[in-house]
Specification:
Layout lengths: L8 E5 L25 H6 L32 E5 L16 E5 L3 E4 L19 H5 L6 H11 L10 H13 L7 E6 L11 E7 L26 E4 L9 E3 L2 H11 L22 E4 L1 H22 L4 H18 L5 H7 L5 H16 L7 H10 L9 H4 L2 H8 L3 H10 L6 H14 L3 H6 L3 H6 L8 H8 L3 H6 L14 H18 L4 E2 H10 L10 H8 L2 H4 L2 E4 L9 E4 H14 L1 H6 L8 H6 L14 H20 L2 E5 L6 H9 L2 H6 L1 E5 L2 H7 L4 E2 H5 L4 E2 L4 E2 L13 E4 L7 H10 L5 E6 L12 H9 L10 E3 L2 E3 L14 H7 L7 H12 L7 E6 L2 H15 L7 H8 L2 E4 L2 E4 L11 E5 L8 H12 L1 H8 L28 E4 L3 E2 L6 E2 L10 E2 L4 E6 L14 E5 L2 E8 L12 E3 L2 E3 H4 L4 E8 L8 H7 L3 E10 L29 E4 L2 E4 L15 H11 L5 E5 ...
Parallel strand pairs: 1-5, 13-19, 13-21, 14-15, 14-18, 18-19, 22-36, 25-34, 25-35, 35-36, 43-45, 44-45
Antiparallel strand pairs: 1-9, 2-3, 4-7, 5-6, 6-8, 10-12, 11-12, 16-17, 20-21, 23-24, 26-30, 26-33, 27-29, 28-32, 30-31, 31-32, 37-38, 39-42, 40-41, 42-43
Helix pairs in contact: 6-7, 8-9, 8-14, 23-31, 26-27, 33-34, 41-43
Pfam family, one: UvrD_C_2
InterPro entries: Coronavir_polyprotein_1ab (IPR050534), P-loop_NTPase (IPR027417), UvrD-like_helicase_C (IPR027785)
GO molecular function: ATP binding; DNA helicase activity
């Protein structure tokens, strides 16, 4: 029996298309690699042969034709639908293709999630979650009968035609023409990261969806049958009189190209409000989710209006009208069914739907009759409204359940049902509210508590869910008024204002801010598209922020003489700060060392990794310096209760820690080694843990990935020495939760490189801690250590080459302390005047010439044998030759794969990770792709035995591919390791970011196993064994997630090192930052090949502090931010060196000088780092400042000396001074009337500072002559 479900909306996944899905191929097939996130597109996309910007016909279908890539096409098409198993399972060999007719302005909807089974327990493998939720007449026994005939285990798809029809008819039956909305979304776009859901368009369902389709069979066929799952859905976003619209993403991209400007594209994206309802290709969307989606679209349009200087009033009016229409469909109590189900009322959802259907039949709308009245009267008289079905639905058990509830609880359930809930949320609130939220009375009095107290729970309630329940449109409020206790006094009720402020500050925390300026909070509030208006202003927010009720959740940090800005901060983050600072107790740490004395250098020299010094080595001096700095660092780590160990990759941090751990004091106390990521944890050794592992379950929730403090939980007290690696990745939540978990300890050491990318999440605690304890001046020359601070700067990854490490100098240009010498070296490298075995530069302009250049460089640098290029490449990723064949074996292949790595800052475009990975796979891996496809001989009834697994995942990964794991995964006892004897000693944990290679399963001719071969993966960080996966565990939305890893993003490379790195450096398509470049330029151990778009020298702009992503975060771990706006972006001025005229400068002291000069701008003018050619030496130099007195015409040259405590710096300066003097320059203190070349010299004091009063005095006395 077909079941009519309530009206819903539809999400439709489409591939990103740079030609607006208009019935033509992409404008640039090569550059649009974003569509590769869809496996069916990725499998057949070939930019080398596909035409660009060409009308699509049945003769030139692109790969996206079956993935809704032509949903805005005005043309009709007919295409065949072949069953995916026709060539791989005898049960389907007689299936002939069905015919799918693509109508103009339509798409094929395929509800994959509805067609999945095996979601139940082991004893119920044919359970259907959707059939259970929607209470459909699905028969699991029919699926069992089909699976017995299939001949293999593990089928996850509904295969019986009767069940397929029931599920498909139920799904498409929820879509009503001219009422249901369609939201078109992409999983990868230029505006987002892979797997984020971005809404690209919205329309209505135009007509009732097409009927169920059939495959074709011979006339006398009597075997198994099933249905195609595609159905044609027409929509109203047509060329003539469109009812709906596309978002202006393409116009924004055109704008950035025309203006040659970089903007944060993500800010203009409309994100899908619910992940689950925007997954699995096509899924039903609830009314509240549809409203939230429309509000997100409206927000995007309003921002786009400002950028594009274009009105979207028509689209915004359309949104308002549709939201009003959805409210008519939604009614006041959309959560009634889930609430009843959570109360264990059998068929609770069906009861709610039957009541809704009855009310619509009776009244014509949902605005006159309260469904709870119908329910309660039906409990008393079951057949009063629902007639014959009423007796079953309102049975004796349902009556007992409801009648047994106290009146206050019933009121609570009714109020809760005003929220759009799913079954899990309703069950969670009913069972956990007392523990997590409060009493029923407290919740009734402030329903926003459900958001505030569950916002970090897996089934938590969102702010917007509550806001819609408490502030529906007036027609709902009048029809079904809230109780006096729950109702808001007005739209700016203090309960709403507090909850909304929390919502805004939590969004900011996810961006990295631990607090926000008051004005920024206000602006964000005004920018949010809300269901009901939120007419907040400065006075109202100020007044409410001072109330005790508000301060319970949000604290205000008032302006002071030193900082004029008012800030708002979440109390929970304020507590994190308190815990971090209390544990650090920096004042006491710095003044009370352990005073342990040892021959630290002897400990370093005696370590096995440091052989006897060779006085004849070209690296002898550097090696001595490197060992001395390690000796001083070891002294620091041993002697302070808290310390930081800083150093780029290759500086010897790991070796130093090994020596540290072997000291008697440390051995006695024991060592706990932790890391924020799984890969960093693996590098620390077998006994290390991730922070998540260490904190679970008391302070880490794996379901939501959140870290939290828990004062009631126990404290760790085993090891007394705590080492935390990759500390730059730590958020404030992670660090506070960790410190909260520790009992008394002797030492805490944070290890990392603070110059790298900031963490994903709140704050930048490592940066803040380093800046707080870093000495103002270093006492010992070439030693950068001090109290609680140890830094290693000498890179010793490769020694005895005699070639200076210019690649290290290059990376320093993008650190926080580049010198003029570093920047001069950058120019020399860019011009080619410096040659190095460690750096190669290669220029490209567009994606096409990038591809040609890249193929050439790969062949030269790996290198590859031109006569046997495919096998040659596969040897470079660990293949071994056996006769004419190549095999990938564990205990060998995984040791080869990290010898080289391609990194790029972007995923999309022809030079992004996706397209580069596909280039490697299709160019050098074709034999293994063919092996995985196992194409059968034509006209043969014999099925050739499969040797390896089919292509897997979004990237169609096959045997021998280099891959990266994307999720932390614990390997359970029942899961296999190969060889099996390695199971006990294996790590049994695969970390997010670990790089591996598929080493099996490869079935030889004598292997008689049935079914698809398993997938075996060996990881470079866990050599000598493989993890064994079942072949069906890599679905598009599956538990395990892998990507090709010939190329990875710079972010994913953080914490890794490779012998040779190919860094793709685009000038566009990515928001590059100083930290991103520094991270990329410190991944290589031996050589980096930089493939740069355009002139390399143009990238020097990113060495400026205003290119810092760290500087754009607002945190207050030790000091409040100094808020400053530059080029329409907000910065913490403590981390940027920008003059009042907006000039990026090398140091803060130069900024002080520039600002002092600018103070007298009516009398003098200056240029920063203007070129000057000396007459005698013909040397071209750049004085810090060139200054003209506008009245006297005199010119002055100002050199500010910043590092005179360093011998090398002093020696270089003295040579430069000599050149000045030979050229006739006169020192300002010795200048006389008539001198034309006057040189002003100032120095920093030993602590690195300057006196601004003295600078002002110098300007007035010598330049202004006052």
């Amino acid at each position: 029996m077909n079941k009519n479900l309530p009206i819903k909306h539809l999400s439709a996944r489409v591939p990103w298309h740079d030609n607006k899905w208009n019935g033509k191929t992409c404008c640039s097939v090569l550059d649009n690699s974003f569509c590769r996130i869809l496996p069916r597109v990725d499998a057949t996309k070939n930019p080398d042969i596909e035409p660009s910007d060409t009308t699509i016909t049945e003769d030139n279908f692109p790969p996206c034709i079956s993935e809704k890539g032509t949903f805005l096409s005005p043309y009709s098409y007919t295409r065949e639908l072949s069953h995916a198993w026709t060539t791989i399972n005898p049960m389907f060999k007689d299936f002939k293709p069905g015919i799918y007719y693509h109508k103009p302005f339509s798409f094929n909807a395929v509800p994959f999630l509805w067609m999945m089974k095996n979601k139940g327990s082991d004893d119920n493998p044919h359970y259907s979650e959707k059939a259970n939720v929607f209470e459909l007449d699905y028969d699991a026994n029919l699926e069992q009968q089909v699976d017995i005939k299939l001949g293999f285990a593990g089928n996850i798809w509904v295969q019986h035609p009767a069940n397929q029809k029931i599920l498909l008819d139920a799904f498409f039956g929820c879509l009503k023409k001219q009422e249901s909305l369609v939201f078109f979304y992409c999983k990868d776009t230029p505006f987002s990261n892979p797997n984020e859901r971005i809404i690209v368009g919205v329309a209505k369902v135009k007509n009732e969806p097409g009927s169920i389709l059939e495959y074709n069979f011979d006339r006398n066929y009597q075997g198994h049958k099933s249905h195609p799952w595609d159905r044609c859905v027409e929509h109203t976003l047509t060329t003539n009189n469109p009812d709906g619209f596309l978002l202006p993403y393409h116009e924004i991209l055109d704008y950035t190209k025309q203006k040659s400007t970089e903007i944060e594209l993500k800010e203009y994206a409309a994100f899908a409000p619910d992940y689950k309802q925007f997954s699995f290709a096509s899924e039903l969307v609830e009314h509240d989710t549809a409203i939230d989606a429309l509000l997100n679209i409206a927000e995007s349009l309003k921002k786009s209006e400002v950028l594009l200087e274009k009105s979207f009033r028509k689209e915004l009016d359309w949104i308002d009208a549709e939201i009003s229409a959805i409210w008519n469909m939604r009614g006041a109590f959309p959560g009634m069914g889930p609430v009843l189900s959570a109360l264990n009322v059998e068929d609770g959802n069906t009861i709610a739907w039957e009541i809704e259907k009855h009310i619509i039949q009776k009244d014509g709308n949902l605005l006159q009759t309260n469904p709870w009245t119908i329910f309660e009267e039906s409990i008393a008289e079951p057949e009063k409204y629902i007639k014959t079905r009423g007796a079953k639905l309102f049975n004796a058990t349902a009556q007992r359940i409801w009648k047994g509830k106290p009146g206050k609880k019933k009121e609570f359930y009714k109020q809760l049902s005003r929220c759009q809930l799913n079954n899990d949320q309703a069950n969670f609130i009913l069972t956990k509210h007392a523990e997590l939220v409060g009493s029923i009375q407290e919740i009734i009095e402030n329903l926003y508590l459900l958001y505030e107290k569950t916002r970090f729970e897996g089934y938590g309630i969102s702010f917007r869910q509550i806001d819609k329940a408490l502030l529906p449109p007036e027609k709902i409020q009048l029809a079904f008024p809230l109780t006096k206790e729950s109702a808001l006094k007005d739209r700016l009720d203090e309960r709403r204002v507090r909850a909304f402020t929390i919502f805004i500050l939590e969004e900011a925390a996810a961006e990295g801010h631990s607090l926000l300026p008051f004005d920024e909070v206000l602006e964000r509030m005004k920018a949010k598209a809300m269901d009901e208006p939120f007419p907040i202003d400065e006075d109202i927010l100020t007044t409410q922020s001072e109330e005790d009720f508000f301060v319970e959740e949000v604290t205000s940090i008032l302006p002071s003489k030193t900082n004029p800005t008012l800030f708002l901060k979440l109390q929970r983050i304020a507590e994190l700060k308190d815990i971090i600072r209390q544990r650090l107790n920096i004042g006491q740490v710095l003044t009370k060392p352990y005073n342990i004395e040892k021959d630290w250098l002897k400990l370093i020299n005696s370590h096995k990794k440091f052989p006897a010094l060779d006085t004849h080595s070209p690296d002898y001096i550097d090696e001595i310096t490197a060992r001395n700095e390690k000796a001083e660092a070891l002294n620091v780590l041993t002697n302070y209760r808290f310390s930081v160990l800083i150093g780029p990759a290759g500086s010897g941090k790991t070796s130093l820690l090994e020596i540290f751990e072997k000291q008697d004091e440390i051995v006695r106390g024991g060592v706990l080694k932790l890391a924020p990521t799984g890969k960093a944890r693996v590098k620390l050794g077998h006994d290390a843990k991730t922070i998540a592992q260490f904190l679970y379950p008391d302070r880490y929730n794996p379901m939501t990935g959140t870290y939290f403090i828990n004062e009631e939980a126990g404290k760790y007290s085993s090891a007394k020495n705590i080492i935390i690696d990759e500390a730059s990745m730590l958020t404030e939540e992670q660090l506070a939760a960790l410190f909260d978990a520790l009992g008394p300890v002797d030492r805490i050491i944070l290890v990392g490189d603070y110059r790298q990318l900031p963490p994903i999440g709140t704050g930048r605690p490592f940066v803040d801690i380093v800046n707080e304890i870093k000495p103002k001046v270093f006492v010992k020359e070439n030693i950068f250590s001090g109290a609680a601070y140890a830094e290693l700067r000498k890179i010793r990854r490769q020694s005895n080459t005699g070639d200076f490490r210019w690649d290290v100098v290059l990376s320093r240009c993008f650190s926080d302390e580049p010198t003029k010498e570093d920047l001069e070296a950058f120019h020399a490298i860019a011009s080619g005047s410096i040659k190095s075995d460690h750096i190669r530069l290669a220029k490209w302009y567009e994606s096409k010439d990038f591809r040609e250049l890249f193929e050439q460089i790969i062949a030269e640098e790996l290198p590859l044998d031109k006569n046997d290029i495919i096998k040659s490449f596969n040897r470079k990723i660990g293949a071994k030759d056996f006769g004419d064949y190549q095999y990938f074996n564990y205990d060998y292949a995984e040791k080869e794969i990290e010898k080289w790595q391609v990194i790029s800052p972007v995923n999309g475009y022809g030079y992004g990770v996706k397209e580069v990975n596909k280039f490697f796979q299709t160019t050098y891996r074709k034999p293994f792709i063919n092996l995985a496809l196992n194409i059968q001989p034509e006209n043969s009834n014999y099925f050739q035995k499969r040797k390896v697994a089919k292509p897997k995942g979004n990237d169609n990964i096959v045997y021998g591919d280099k891959v990266i794991n994307l999720r932390n995964t614990r390997w359970e006892n029942w899961q296999k390791i190969k060889p099996s004897e390695k199971k006990t000693e294996a790590l049994n944990y695969i970390a997010n970011g670990e790089i591996g290679i598929i080493t099996g399963e490869f079935r030889g001719k004598d292997n008689d196993r049935k079914g698809e071969p398993n997938v075996e993966i060996s990881f470079s960080t866990q050599p000598s064994y493989s993890y064994v996966f079942w072949p069906d565990q890599f679905g598009e939305e599956g538990k395990y997630s892998l990507e090709l890893a010939y190329a990875i993003t710079v972010h994913k490379s953080q914490g890794s090192g490779f012998e040779k790195v190919f860094f793709i450096m685009p000038s566009k398509g990515a928001l590059l930052s100083r930290e991103l470049l520094y991270t990329a330029l410190t991944r290589q151990e031996k050589k980096i090949i930089i493939l740069h778009q355009g002139d390399f020298k143009d990238f020097l702009r990113l060495a400026s502090t205003d290119a810092s992503s760290t500087a754009r975060r607002f945190t207050d771990l030790f000091h409040l931010p100094q808020v400053k706006q530059l080029k329409q972006k907000w910065y913490d001025a403590r981390y940027v060196n920008i003059s009042e005229r907006g000039e990026p400068m090398l140091s803060k002291n130069e900024v002080i000088i520039a600002n002092c000069l600018n103070k007298y701008k009516r009398q003098i003018t200056y240029a920063y780092e203007d070129k000057l050619k000396l007459d005698i030496s013909t040397r071209i130099i750049k004085p810090d400042f060139t200054i003209d007195n506008l009245s006297t015409g005199k010119r002055f040259y100002w050199e500010h000396l910043g590092m005179m405590t360093k011998t090398n710096y002093r020696e270089k300066w003295l040579k430069k001074l000599e050149s000045y003097l030979k050229d006739g320059f006169v020192l300002h203190t010795e200048a006389k009337e008539g001198d034309e070349k006057i040189l002003i010299i100032t120095e920093e004091n030993p602590n690195g500072g300057i006196n601004s009063h003295d600078i002002d005095l110098t300007v007035r006395r010598y330049i202004l002559e006052t």
